[in-house]
Structure formats: C-alpha cells, structure tokens
Amino acid sequence: MSRVNLHYLELKDSYLFRTIDRKTTEYLQEHPGQRLLRLGIGDVTLPLAPVVIEALHEAVRDQADKASFHGYMPEVGAPFLRKAIAGYYAKRGVQLQEQEVFVSSGASDDLGDLLDIFQRGIDTLLIEPAYPAYRDANVMAGNNIISLDSSERDGFAPWPDASISADVVYLCSPNNPTGAVYSRDKLAAWVAWAREKDAIIIFDAAYEAFIQDDAIPHSIYEIEGAKSCAIEVCSLSKTAGFTGTRCGYTIVPLELVRNGASLNAMWVRNRCTKTNGISYILQRGAEAVFTDEGQKQVHEAIALYKANAGAIMEALDACGIWYCGGRNAPYIWLKAPGGMSSWELFDTLLERCQVVGTPGSGFGDCGEGFFRLTIFGSPADTREAAARIKALWG
After folding, report:
1. 85 neighbors 290 (Cβ within 8 angstroms)
2. Above 90 in pLDDT, residue 14?
3. Are 307 and 336 part of one and the same domain?
C-alpha cells in the first residue's frame, strides 16, 4: 500500500482569498458597472526597468548565437549573478563569499524548500500574524509549530521570549502582512536568542528595498554573530517587479554549521539534486538590477509605490486610525475603526468605498480586528481609494 504524506490533510482550508473573490464577485453582480479599487493583492503594477528589459533582450540574442549560447546553468546560480549580489551586500558593509549566495526562482520557493535540510518533526517558531506559507510548509513537513503573537503594543515586531525554545524561527522584516520592521536592537536580541537556543533564523528580507530609515537593518547579517545562526531569503519580485519574471536569492553562510555539518554544503547538494538552475536569460535580467543604473531605475519605481503609501497614510492620519507599515514597507496594517472585526471592515470598505483589501484575521488569530492594504496599485486608484477612506471616517 502506498504511504502518502497525511500531514497535507492537516492543512486548514485557505478560505481567505476565495472568500474575498466571492464577496467581490457578488458585489459586482449586484452593482454592474461599478469599478473596484483593489488594494488587497500584493502584486506589482509597474513594468520592469528599462535596463532589465535591455539585458533580457541581449540575453535572448545570446541564445540565438552558437558562440554565446548557454544551456544548463549552475544549479546554485551563475557566477556573474552571485558576484553581483555579493557586491550589493558589500555596499552595506556585509561581506559575503560568492559561494554563500544561491540564486532561486523566488523567495517563496526557498522559504519552503529550506525545510529539507532539517529533520522532520522539529519545533518551528512563527511570529504571528504571519505569511500563511510559513505555517503551511511546516504543516506539510510534519513539524511542531509554536506561535508567538505580536500586537499593537510591540508594533507587531516582538522581542524574543527567553522561555521559548525552537529549532527554527521565521522572521520577516519588513513584514508581510503588517509592514512592521525590526530595529537593530530587536534583531540583535533575536540573534542572541538564536545563538543561545542553538536555533536557526530563516530571515525573510523580500521587501528590504522599501526600507528608507537608515537605522533599520536591510540584512540580518548587519548584526554581529548572525552568520552563525541565520539564513537570509530575498527576492526581486517587489524590489524590481519580477513577480511574473521570477528570480530571487538565498544566503547560506559558510560558518553556519550544526551537528558537525555545513548547512551551506547541504544546500548545495539540495539544489543540485532538486533543481536545474534558473535560466540564463532571467539571470542576466536579474544581474542588471544590481548595476548602478539598475538600482537607480528600480528605486524610481519604488518611489512611486512609496508615494502611494504616503497617500494612504495621510488619509489614515486624518481619520485618526492606528496603523503600522507604509514608511519602510509595501504594506499598511491598520486597526479596524469602531471595534469592527476584520471582515466587517472588509464589507464596509467594499460597500461604502468600493475599496478591496485583506482582512487581518486571514493571517492568524491575532490579526483579528486589523486589515492589510498594499501600495502596489496604480497611483490614480490609490489616491482615489485614500480619498474615499478619508471621506468615510475623516
């Protein structure tokens, strides 16, 4: 008899976005011709930077010429891209060896696949509200999940709890869904906690490019001692509009060793076994992001998104609504006014403002009473949505 992974049956039904789709579809059926302003889905709306487009075209031309054609790429990433990413870190004072950089098809893939290098049944600590894929990947792996709730009191970026021990902890800064960021002191406390508990931090830095406060670390490796206890996962999806192009990277330091085994060497073996690498064309496009001109162009796009954040934050300030995020993150996490539940706020915004966001309760129980808005909509739609919210509660 075949033995399948019955942990899949333990996954909770993902009702969140299905319910959002159902409610918005029903609303449009009852109000034909009504235009909804969608600030719920975290997908980008601006095109790829011109320097990236040119690099992609040049790489396609390379593939048309026998002399410059590339077949299989290294499973861990092309040397030219690994070097470019290491150079990007060096500009912030973080020194990486190129063999510590692994190119991926995006952060989401590695955030789940990294569990391959740990035993099944480990204790995993999740800071909630949390990106749902963290929990689902650990349920599939049969791991024991421990939750540490964050709240308005700690700005949804809690300090470590010395009474809790775990093998792995997921930290996300800037955070999805809350937009919260971890200060240098808090990250240092988490690194100290991990070193004391012999735990591994999986640090999700997918939104680091949105940080504008100089005091906020972009990388966990800006904290002394982090290379001995942390793996960092990053992405070009929101940084450079690669949601449909798919490229990211993961850092596994050479000094990260447990039970006498190098996690870097284990991840090399994992990638060489389970992947055939990322295409030459996409890696050339990604390389262009890390050039001086590429950085200039992607930050011009980020500035447009941050202007969207400014419009939403101004409206919430005028309404006296508590929120975090926005300034250093592409998400704004607001407290539902008047004691409404997350879904009551969803219905209110849909019916009275024609604005669609994401109920916070979909990210964990402690997200109840909160709501997520993204800044990735068009500037015109975002300004209009902000104006409608301000008119409703301002």
Report:
1. yes
2. no
3. yes
CB 220 within 8 A of CB 204: no
Q: Please state, in angstroms and as integers, the Cα–Cα distance from residue 228 to each residue in 204, 223, 366, following that order.
A: 17, 11, 31
The DSSP secondary structure of 58-78, one letter per residue, reads HHHHHHTSTTT---SPPTT--
174: left (phi over 0), alpha (psi -120 to 50) or beta: beta
How far apart CA 199 and CA 201 sit, in angstroms, is 7
Per-residue pLDDT tens digits for 231-287: 999 999 999 999 999 999 999 999 999 999 999 999 999 999 999 999 999 999 999
Structure tokens at 69: 């054609």
Average pLDDT, the chain: 96
What residue ranges in the chain does DSSP mark as E strands?
37-38, 101-104, 123-128, 144-149, 168-172, 200-204, 230-235, 248-251, 257-258, 261-262, 323-325, 331-335, 355-356, 358-359, 370-374
Tell me, yes or no, if the pTM score tops 0.85: yes
**Measuring CA to CA, which residue among 48, 45, 38, 21 is closest to residue 382?**
38
Pair (254, 307) in one structural domain = no
Q: Categorize the per-residue pLDDT at 394 as very low, low, confident or very high, splitting at 50, 70 and 90.
A: confident
Task: Give, for 199, the enclosing helix (H) or strand (E).
Answer: none
Q: Examine residue 168 and state whether it is found in any structural domain, yes or no.
A: yes
Shared domain check, 147 and 84: yes
Give me Rg for the CA atoms of the chain: 21
Q: In the chain, how long is the greatest CA-to-CA distance?
A: 67
Q: Point out the domain boundary residue: 273, 291, 309.
A: 291
